[in-house]
Amino acid sequence: MKGIEPSEYRLLTAQLLDNASGRRNRGLLELMYSAGLRCSEACEFQPPDYQPRSGRPYVRVRRGKGNKERFIPINGNLATLIEDWLE
User: Which regions of 8-69 does DSSP assign to beta strands (E)?
Assistant: First the structure.
C-alpha cells in the first residue's frame, strides 16, 4: 500500500482556493493526512464528530475498519483547520 508523499500533499494543498470549498477541502485533506483517516472514514465525517474538548481536541470515526468506532486525538493546527471549515 502506498501513501501520499509530503511533496505530493504540498502540491495538492497549494491548488486549493481560499474560499468555502477550499477550506473544506483543506480540512478534509489535512484530516486524512494528519489523523490517518481512510477515504471512506473522511467521507462519513460530520460536524458533531469533531470535539474541541477544552484544549484536547479529537475526532470520532463512527464506522472505521471492521465497523468499529474510534476516537483520534488531533493537534491544534488540524483543530483550527476543522473549525475554519465548519464555520
Answer: 50-51, 58-61
